[in-house]
Amino acid sequence: MEIKLGLKENWQQFSLLVLINMFVGGMVGLERTVVPLVGTEEFKIGSDLLIFSFIIAFGVVKAFTNLVSGVLADRYTRKRILIFGWLAGLPVPFLLAWGPTWNWIIAANVLLGISQGLAWSMTVNMKIDLVGPGKRGLAMGLNEAAGYGAVGLTALLTGYLASRYGLRPQPFYIGIFYTLAGLLLSGFVVRDTRSHAQFESAQHQTTSPAHKPDLFWVFRETSFRNKNLFAISQAGLINNLNDGMSWGVFPLLFLSAGVSLQGVGWIKAVYPVVWGVGQIITGPLADRIGRKPLIVWGMIIQAVGHVVIGTEMLPPFASGISGSVLLGIGTAMVYPSLLAAVSDVAHPSWRASSLGVYRFWRDIGYAVGAVMSGVVANMLGLIWAVHVAGAITFLSGVFVWVRMRETVR
C-alpha cells in the first residue's frame, strides 16, 4: 500500500483515532467529580493529602509509562501498545464502582495511569505519524479536543448520576462501555502507523545523530540540554500541576462553599470542555502564528483564572464557572502548542521517545499538583492551593517568554 502523509490522505484512520481518544479521555472523566467525594463521604477520610493520593498514584504511574511508551511503540508497533493500554484499563471501572477500601481506588488509578500512558500516547504518536509536519498543530488540536472534551462531558454526566443515584456504582457504568469500545476498535479496525513515521524520516533533511539515540540520550536532550525542549517540558509540568490541583481541590472547595453536587459537576465539566473544544481553534492557530505566543499567553490566562476562582467578589458557583472557563481557554492555547513544539524540534527517528519524555514531565505535574495542594490545603486551607498554583503558573509563562525560541520554521 502506498504511504502518503497528510490529514486529507489519511482522514479515515485519523477520524477513528479521534473517536478512540474520546474513549481514552472519558476514562479520566469518570473520576473528576465523584472520586474525591467518595474519599470524604464514603470512606470518611479527613486528610486532603490522603484524599489526593489517588491523583498522585495516577500521575506518577502515567508519567513513567509515558517515558517508555515511545520505546515500546518503536519495538512492538503503535497498535500493539494501544491495545495493551486498553487491556490495562479494563478493570478500572469495576474497581472504582465496587472497591471496598480506599486502597482499591488507588489500585484502580495505578492501572488507569498505565492505560492512559499507553493509549493516549499512541493516539498522539499515530496522528503525528499520519499528518506529517505541515498540520501538527491541527492534529494535536483535534486529538486533545476529543480527549478533553470527553473528560468534561463525562465529569458532567457522572455528577448528574451521582446526584440522582448516589456516588457509587452507577456513575462508573459508562467506563465499562468506554473500555470495551476502545479495545474492540483498537484491535480490529485501527492500522499501525509506524511506516508513516519511517517514510517521513527518510525525507527529513535536518541533521540527526549518526545512530538512533537511546532513551537516556533522548531523556537528557528533552529534559535539560535543549533549551527549547526544557522550556516546553517545564511548562507542561506546570500546566498539569493546575489540572491535578483542580481535580482534587475543586469538588471539596465548592461543595464546602455551598455549591450543589450537580453544580460541582458543571464546574468540573466546563474546564476540560472549553479546553477540549478550544483546541480545534488553537491547534491550527499554532501552525499559523507559531507555538510560543500561545504558550506564553495561555499560561498567563490560566493564572488569571486562578485569581477569579479565589475571589470573594462573586458567588462561589459564578466564580467557579468563570475561573474554569479562563483555565480552559488558557490550557487550550498551551496544550497542542507544546506537543507540536516537541514534534518540531525532535527528529522523526527519536520523536516518539522525545514525546514520551515530554509527557513524562507533563504528567508528573499531576502528582506535583496533588502533593502541593494537599500540603497547602492542610496548612492554610483549600483556597490557598488555588492561589499558589496561580502564582507558579504565571512564573512558568514568564520563563517560556524569556527562554524559548519559536520552533515553527
Structure description:
The protein has 17 helices and no strands. It has helices spanning 11-32, 35-42, 48-51, 53-76, 78-89, 92-98, 102-131, 136-165, 173-188, 194-203, 215-225, 227-256, 261-289, 292-309, 316-345, 351-380, 382-403. Helices cover 81% and strands 0% of the residues. The mean pLDDT is 89. Helix 5 packs antiparallel against helix 7 (102-131), helix 11 crosses helix 16 (351-380) and helix 12 (227-256) packs antiparallel against helix 13. The longest helix is centred in the first third of the chain and has 30 residues, at 102-131. It is mostly helical and 409 residues long. It starts with 10 loop residues before the first helix and ends in a 6-residue tail after the last helix. The protein has one domain: Up-down Bundle (Growth Hormone, Chain: A).
H/E topology pattern: HHHHHHHHHHHHHHHHH
Radius of gyration, taken over Cα atoms and rounded to an integer in Å: 20 Å
**CATH topology title:** Growth Hormone, Chain: A
SSE class? mainly alpha
What does the overall shape look like?
globular
CATH class call: Mainly Alpha
Biggest sheet: strands, sense, closure?
A: none
Cα(first) to Cα(last) distance is: 31 Å
Q: Which homologous superfamily in CATH is the superfamily?
A: MFS general substrate transporter like domains
Uncertain residue ranges: none
